[in-house]
Amino acid sequence: MNKLMTVADVVGQLRDGMTIGFGGWGPRRKPMAIVREILRSDVKDLTVVAYGGPEVGMLCAAGKVRKLIFGFATMDAIPLEPYFRKARQAGTLDVMELDEGLFQWGLKAAAMRLPFLPARAGLATDVLTHNPELKTIASPYADGEVLLAMPALNLDVAFVHVNCADRLGNTLITGHDAYFDQHFARAAQQCFVSAETVVERLEMDASTARLSTFERSLVTGVVEAPLGAHPTYCGPEYGWDLQHLKAYSDSAGEEGGWQRYLETYVNCSDADYLERNGGAERISGLPLPIF
Amino acid sequence: MNKPEFSLAELMIVAASEAWRNNGELLASGLGIIPRLAASLAKLTHSPELLMTDSEAYLVEEPIPVGPRGDYVPKYAGYMPFERVFDCVWHGRRHAMVGPTQIDRWAQTNLSVVGDYKKPKVAMLGVRGLPGNSINHRNSFFVPSHSAKVFVADEVDMVSGVGFKPERWGPGMRHDLMGIGVAVTDLCVMDWKGPDNAPRVVSLHPGVDFELVQERTGFPLLKADDLAETRHPTTDQLALIQRLDPHNLRAKQLKGNPAGIRTTEEVRA
């Protein structure tokens, strides 16, 4: 079994109008090598489902997003995601804005092949007002409590970046938090994983095996993408690139800023990308953020 | 004995730490430097039973200093990644202090957009965890710059966190699990314990009078019966704050890092 693919192979699977999810959280462990390949492709009209970071802003800036399903878009140290804001403020972006716990519930419903899961989050707020497709449901038991029925967030494709993978599709997340990647993998028809390192076959002991949060049977393809989460944080290997994120953020306020960003960091080879960010050594030495 | 000098940020940290007094054994989450220092101070002084995280993925039994840690090694007490935070939120044993962009008279909060929802004047973060937090456990608010832009005259532009407005609650929805603590601002401490959950001023920071707070608030305020001056930090509290914030990040949280004791003219300036 060999699931090794290139980013081009992976993005070649995408079709206009698909619903795609991204693992990670804000500016943390985002599959950015895959995102850059999507930016280079012709695919459009995407519904993007994410705990949003710069991938959301970049896909918005490139006009790829028809609808965004999200609880937030942020880059943490730079709280407001500039291109997400631009798209949002232009009124061109269709959004389904959810509580971040409710969002998880939608992924879990999809993962368990349920139409919905009940929740309290979102009741008595404008999450309901602005998402008329969200319905409430009364508990069938004696309590009769009225709850929000969070619909399944079924994904066509999920993209996840992990620390290590093997050709079989086994994965290890060695950072402090696995976020909700396992639910993304399970909520999707196909899940593609990019990894800092890919080996023939992962060798684990019982304690490292615990760092595998979803089964290889969920993984359609594996891409070797060293430093593939840059400029986001990929602990314990490297921190986020605040200098890059700041320049990216500033570009949103400059005339032709996005075009320049694209030319410098997207429409180039992997080798150029690394060089323009100070080289592999600099990136792998980026300090881990202190929370 | 000389009275200690202190900054407004330090006064607010001490005032905010009171939010977690007598809460019992629950997760204290202070989002942002001042609320986090406040929760940490609460745990180190009056409420050692509080649970706390390292703001990333672990529970710690000793509050972690903010900023670069040098050779400080966290004392881990358990694992608390985001997924478990949500479990904790939905279970209800948590009290968070958050900084919404807008707050209204019903204690409803907004972190999503200012202006029209479809084409907002300002897009912020998104609702984040406010809907789930607010309906499931107690929340307090941190407001670094008290104004009618934050404490809005009407309802907040996008209700992200629930509050006490009856029309928002449909029949059969449980609103007994929510709780509102206090709002700690650069002018005062407020709560929503007036008749029918009306907002009240509980204490005024040095140099602040009730009229000024009312002027800078978009909705009518009541005075608490025991309205007093916000308690000043003690020497011991200031020493603990210094230990928790060795790089003095607290000095950068309020514009101009004002002194804790100000004259009425300085406050109004």
TrEMBL record, chain A:
<keyword id="KW-0808">Transferase</keyword>
<protein>
    <recommendedName>
        <fullName>3-oxoadipate CoA-transferase</fullName>
        <ecNumber>2.8.3.6</ecNumber>
    </recommendedName>
</protein>
<dbReference type="GO" id="GO:0047569">
    <property type="term" value="F:3-oxoadipate CoA-transferase activity"/>
</dbReference>
<dbReference type="GO" id="GO:0042952">
    <property type="term" value="P:beta-ketoadipate pathway"/>
</dbReference>
<dbReference type="InterPro" id="IPR004165">
    <property type="entry name" value="CoA_trans_fam_I"/>
</dbReference>
<comment type="pathway">
    <text>Aromatic compound metabolism; beta-ketoadipate pathway; acetyl-CoA and succinyl-CoA from 3-oxoadipate: step 1/2.</text>
</comment>
<dbReference type="Pfam" id="PF01144">
    <property type="entry name" value="CoA_trans"/>
</dbReference>
<dbReference type="InterPro" id="IPR037171">
    <property type="entry name" value="NagB/RpiA_transferase-like"/>
</dbReference>
From TrEMBL, chain B:
<dbReference type="GO" id="GO:0016740">
    <property type="term" value="F:transferase activity"/>
</dbReference>
<keyword id="KW-0808">Transferase</keyword>
<protein>
    <submittedName>
        <fullName>Ketoacid CoA transferase</fullName>
    </submittedName>
</protein>
<dbReference type="InterPro" id="IPR037171">
    <property type="entry name" value="NagB/RpiA_transferase-like"/>
</dbReference>
